[in-house]
Specification:
alpha+beta, 60s Ribosomal Protein L30, Chain: A, four-stranded mixed β-sheet, 7 helices, about 10% strand
Length: about 220
């Protein structure tokens, strides 16, 4: 089999003989160039097929894990009273802790419309702040169309385009190309600094309570 150009791996598989033993037996057998090429091509094809199968397997396993995570999240959400304003305000406080402005105003900037929609809806439900009171600005890259993005964010957030100021252009991006899916960072300002202060104190205070719990 070896003299006919069969690979050591194939002989090991078919006969159950350890590869180390086969290597000793075959050390004096010289394969032709054509035989080596054939073995290499076959091994490369087998490797490629194995990789495809591995990718499919990993994708299926990932789908299973994603489904488990989704179901666990749904179960957790079902136990929450989303109409409870204390729960909503705590969630907003932690979002603000990570994404909100710490200057003397209540504002938040993000590239994800869903984050800002949550911010806006929470302001309305908790503090009776309506969309017509909000002011917005968009930070864009140098190769982006500011007027198109003002319209995009106006439609996404359902805020009048008249509430949007001029776009701020990042001049550091002059020589780089922007991904088509990137729509800049929209900053939404509510203006009432009292809200910002309460959210910051609330998030920090809750952290202190959790950190201070006895294990």
């Amino acid at each position: 089999m070896r003299r006919k150009g069969t690979s050591i791996r194939a002989i090991e598989r078919d006969w159950g003989i350890p590869r180390s033993t086969l290597s000793g037996w075959f050390k004096n057998i010289k394969l032709t160039k054509e035989q080596k090429i054939r073995i290499w091509n076959k091994a490369s094809k087998a490797t490629a097929e194995a990789r495809k199968k591995a990718v499919l397997w990993h994708n299926k396993e990932k789908e299973k894990r994603m489904l488990v995570a989704e179901n666990e999240a749904i179960l957790g959400l079902s136990k929450l009273n989303v109409e409870d304003k204390n729960t909503l305000e705590l969630a907003l406080a932690f979002l603000y802790m990570g994404e909100g402005s710490k200057a003397d105003l209540t504002s938040m900037g993000n590239s994800n419309p869903k984050v800002l929609k949550f911010f806006i809806k929470s302001l309305e439900l908790l503090y009776d702040i309506h969309k017509d009171e909000l002011k917005c600005n968009i930070h864009i890259r140098s190769d982006q169309n500011g007027e198109q993005l003002r319209k995009y964010w106006s439609n996404e957030l359902e805020i009048s385009i008249n509430n949007f100021g001029p776009c701020a252009v990042d001049k550091r991006t002059v020589k780089s190309k922007t991904y088509s899916y990137y729509n800049g960072v929209c900053v939404v300002r509510a203006g009432r600094v009292a809200i910002q202060r309460k959210l910051v104190f609330l998030s920090n205070g809750f952290c202190d309570k959790i950190i201070g719990l006895v294990g």
